[in-house]
Structure formats: C-alpha cells, structure tokens
Design goal:
CATH superfamily of the largest domain: P-loop containing nucleotide triphosphate hydrolases
Mean pLDDT: 84
Radius of gyration: 27 Å
Number of strands: 9
Strand content: 5-15%
Structural class: alpha/beta
Strand order of the largest sheet: 3-2-4-5-1-6-7-8-9
Number of domains: 2
CATH class of the largest domain: Alpha Beta
Helix content: 40-55%
Largest sheet: 9 strands, mixed
Length: about 450
C-alpha cells in the first residue's frame, strides 16, 4: 500500500493528478504560471512525472509549449527499449484516453487547488532555505529568498525576450483554424486557413442582406470538417436555425427540407459530421454570463465546442449598464473576445450596419452601427452588401474590412443563396479594388440622377 505524502499530489488521488496535466495541455497561460513552482516529482504516477518533465523541458528550450501530437511523437522517439516501452504504453494510453473522453467540467477547480498547493510548497521550501541561511548567519539573503517565493506563481513569464527566445518564433504552431469554406478568404495571405483560436470574427451587413445566413454557413463548414459547433440565436427559433443547417449541409432549399426528411437523415448517416447545439434566448435577455453558464452545462455532458456562433452580439445584454449604447455594445464585444481567448476557440458573430450604407457598394468599419469600438475588438471584420435590386439575383459583395491574420481591404463579388444559407465568391472574377467599387457606385448614382432629371424635365 502506497502511503499518501502530504507534500505531493498523491494526497489528491490518480484522477486529480491526471486532471492537472490535462489542465497544463489545455491552458498554456496557466502552464507558464506553473512552470516556476510546479516540480514534476510532485506527481505520484511515473507516466505523469515523465510527461510533466518533457512538457516543461520543451518550454525551457523553445519558449513554447508542445502540442499533444508533438508530445506523442517525442515519446515514440525517446521510449524505445526495455522498461521504456511499458512507460511509453502507459503514456500513450493516458493521452489517448484524455483526447477521446475530455471531461473538462472541473478543470477550473483543479487549477485553483493545484496553484494553491504549489505556492504553499514554494513557501515551505523558502522557509527551510531561510532557516539554513539564518544558521549560517547569512541574514541578508533571507529577504530575497522569501520575496522570490512569494512572487512565484503570481504571474506568467516576463514576456518574449526577442533575441534569447528566438526559437519560439520558428516553431511550427498549429493555429487550429475553423475554415470559412470560402476559398478566397481561407487562402494563406488572407485568413491563412480560417478564423483562429481565441479570435472573434464579425460579419457586418444591413437588415435582410444575409448576416444570419453567413453565420450558418460558417457553422456548417465547421461541422463538415468534424468540429463541434454551438450556435446561439436571439431572433430565430432553434428549429428554424436547424432547418437552415439542414438546408446547407444537405443542399436542399430550406422550404423543401421537411418534405425530404429521409434524404436529410441519410446524409447525416453517411457523413462523419461534428456536433451541433443550437440554443435560443430571447432578444436582449442573454449576456456573456448566460452563455458561460450554458457552456458549463455542455462541459458536464462532455460536449466541448470548437466554434461558437452568436447571432448576434448587437442584441445581447452587457453585464454593466451605460448611459451610452455604444459603450455598452463595446463591452459586449470585449466580453465575447475574453470568452474566446479563455476557451481558446474562435467565435463568429454579426453586427448591424447603419442606414447610410444601405445603398453603398462598400460597407466599411465606419458603417458598424452605434459603436466603432466594436471594430477595435474584432480580429476579423467582413461585410456583406447588396442593393435592393440585387436581392432577387443574389448578387452582392464581400469586403474584408479588417484582418489581423493577413491582407484586408479586399472585395469579392459574391452570390448569396438565402434558400440554402450559402455564400460563394464568383469563380470567373478576381478580387475587386475599392476604387473600382467606388467608381461603380458613383456611376450608378449618376445614372439614377440622370433618370430622375429626365422624368422631371421630360428631356430624353
């Protein structure tokens, strides 16, 4: 029987220890905080000792934490003979089990408990060193020893030392993007694969142009690629949004989905799609706290989203009330951004464009209704524009107004298929310049004025 040692993680049991390393893998900000105060031999289990040692050693050398896939590769290369093979099997079995059944519901508690334990250990070790220093009459060092112990674990590293930590910049890091499915956006020099982890993307458009259809298309593309999507709707019902997903995923017009139930079900049986959860809240009733509470319930059911779709942020409730609507909306977007970074997943949402943009060729950042500050928070802002006479044909324009991942200021002629919630860039054309779009807009305005003048004067 193994005796529990109060100075090591063995006092918490096997499940808790496995959760600790899972937290290290999931939250690299916390890992950077723990590297100063956690020792690999705090673990009772040999395979966790080994993983923790390699995990922190990799960071010490490259100033970057290894991914789970890279850890597996390192283990296979290193553990090849004798007793190492048994350890390798234990490590791989644990990592495989953690990946296939990631129960994340209590990681917050585990991180808090572990941080508290390690801080106390650091203070205890500092006290022991201080006693030795006092016995050696090295009194001046006692203050430095205690200061160092108190500061450990309080914050992460000092930052990226540009010349010393150069290896971190040359490591290939998996950005784990959610592709948009629009190849002109996903290309390397634009979004470089799609919206990345911790990023917030915003689609801006006027009422009736296609914001909700765009958001469904983003969610559907992620589902096609096997990712889990949570879609929050504040205007449409859950079933109405579900039919739009049926339509997009099965290539059936939304009005025909009900009559084609068997085709829809067969499509889902034949494809390895991800999970989709659609949750409706009344307009203006949901805040970021509401969404957090819902996501925690999903975690308890082992459902971890890879993408959040919020339709849409402008009609959410902020956690604080302001006299000015623009300040309140800015806070809503900041809270969504914080959630995206905390969960380390991308979030797509939408913003209403102002009335001045209704007849414009371009909907830019200045057309985001009520709060230009919303654009400051977003990582990616794309806009959809189409004039009333274009709605019948589905013609329109997609403009990349802001993009932290690559190029912006790009405009593409598109077709918006509202029957199946699909957005596609016309294949026979390339990107349009803003100048071309403005000239086209000005030409249209001149033609309209000429027409009105002819009506008034009777001149041909």
């Amino acid at each position: 029987m193994v005796m529990e040692n109060p100075n090591y993680f063995s006092k918490y049991g096997k499940d808790f220890q496995e959760k600790i390393f899972q937290a290290l893998l999931k939250d690299h900000n916390w890992s950077a905080q723990m590297i100063e105060i956690m020792q690999y031999d705090y673990f009772e289990l040999k395979y966790l000792q080994f993983l923790c040692d390699r995990f922190f050693s990799f960071y010490t050398e490259y100033r970057n934490f290894p991914t789970l896939q890279l850890l597996v590769s390192m283990i296979k290369d290193e553990l090849t003979t004798g007793d190492d093979i048994i350890l390798r099997e234990q490590v791989i079995e644990y990592l495989t089990r953690m990946k296939s059944s990631p129960n994340l519901g209590d990681l917050k508690f585990v991180k808090a408990k572990t941080l508290d334990f390690c801080k106390k250990q650091a203070l205890q070790q500092a006290l022991e060193e201080s006693v030795k220093a006092i016995k050696q009459e090295n009194y001046e060092s006692v203050l430095n020893i205690m200061k160092s112990a108190v500061s450990k674990g309080s914050s992460s590293t000092i930052g990226h030392n540009f010349f010393e930590d150069h290896e971190a910049r040359f490591q290939l890091v998996d950005r784990a993007t959610c592709a948009t499915g629009i190849k002109h956006l996903d290309q390397k020099d634009v979004l470089n694969g799609g919206l990345g982890r911790g990023e917030i993307g915003v689609v801006v458009a006027n009422t009736g142009v296609g914001k909700s259809h765009y958001l469904v298309s983003m969610g559907a593309e992620a589902i096609r690629r096997g990712k889990n999507v949570v879609h929050y709707t504040f205007e449409l019902t859950e079933t109405a949004v579900g039919i739009r997903y049926d339509s997009n995923l099965c290539n059936i017009p939304s009005n025909d989905v009900i009559e084609n139930k068997q085709i829809v079900l067969k499509t889902y049986e034949e494809n390895d799609f991800g999970t989709l959860i659609i949750k409706q809240y009344p307009t203006g009733a949901a805040s970021i706290i509401t969404i957090r509470n819902h996501l925690e319930k999903l975690e308890m059911k082992d459902i971890k989203p890879h993408l959040l779709v919020i339709d849409y942020a402008d009609i959410m409730r902020s956690t604080r009330t302001y006299d000015s609507l623009r300040h309140e909306l800015k806070l809503v977007y900041e809270e969504i951004r914080n959630l995206a970074m905390e969960l380390n997943i991308p979030v797509w949402t939408a913003s209403q464009a102002n009335r001045d943009s209704a007849k414009s060729e371009i909907v830019g950042l200045e057309n985001m209704s009520e709060a230009y500050g919303k654009a400051m928070v977003a990582d990616v802002v794309v806009s959809l524009s189409r004039k009333p006479m274009e709605k019948a044909t589905g013609a329109g324009r997609l403009f990349v107004a802001k993009n932290r991942a690559g190029r912006d200021g790009l405009m593409f002629p598109i077709r918006i298929d509202c029957a199946m919630s699909k957005i596609e860039v016309l294949d026979d054309v390339s990107e349009m310049s803003i100048v071309d779009a403005i000239e086209r807009d000005n030409a249209g305005t001149k033609n309209m004025l000429k027409s009105k003048w002819k009506e008034i004067t009777g001149n041909k």
